[in-house]
Amino acid sequence: MTDAPERRFDRHMLEALVCPVTHATLRYDAERQELVSDAAGLAFPIHDGIPIMLIDEARQIKAD
Fold first, then answer.
1. 18 domain residue, yes or no
2. What family name appears in the similarity comment (predicted)?
3. 3-state SS of the chain?
4. Residue span of the structural domain in which 29 resides
5. What pLDDT, on the 0 to 100 scale, is given for residue 61?
6. How confident is the model at residue 53, as a pLDDT?
7. Vertex 58: Cα angle to 53 and 64 (nearest 5)
8. CB under 8 Å to 46, separation ≥6 — which residues?
9. Which pLDDT value is given to residue 63?
10. Is the dihedral of CA 15, 20, 23, 28 positive or negative?
């Protein structure tokens, strides 16, 4: 029996998703598996290929 294939984030989904706070576009951070809203300063996690677009689940990021 083989393991289930790893679920990956479909980058085409970025065309449909926007930040729930600012409605701005998001960028995909493959290393951290997050969708980042630079406008809101938030990073939304991706679990098992599914973006979690809940503000309470987002990580605050600092602008450099």
1. yes
2. Belongs to the UPF0434 family.
3. CCCCCCCCCCHHHHHCCCCCCCCCCCEEECCCCEEEECCCCEEEEEECCEECCCHHHCEECCCC
4. 12-60
5. 95
6. 97
7. 120
8. 9, 33, 34, 35, 52
9. 58
10. negative
Give yes or no for a contact between 41 and 61, defined as CB atoms under 8 angstroms apart.
Answer: yes
Q: What is the CATH number of the domain that holds 37?
A: 2.20.25.10
What are the residues whose beta carbons fall under 8 Å from the beta carbon of 11, sequence distance 6 or more? Answer: 28
Residues with Cβ within 8 Å of residue 59, at least 6 apart in sequence? 34, 42, 43, 45
Give residues with Cβ within 8 angstroms of 18, minimum separation 6.
24, 25, 26
Nearest to 48 by CA among 12, 4, 8, 13: 8
11-50 per-position pLDDT tens digit: 787 889 999 999 999 999 999 999 999 999 999 999 998 9
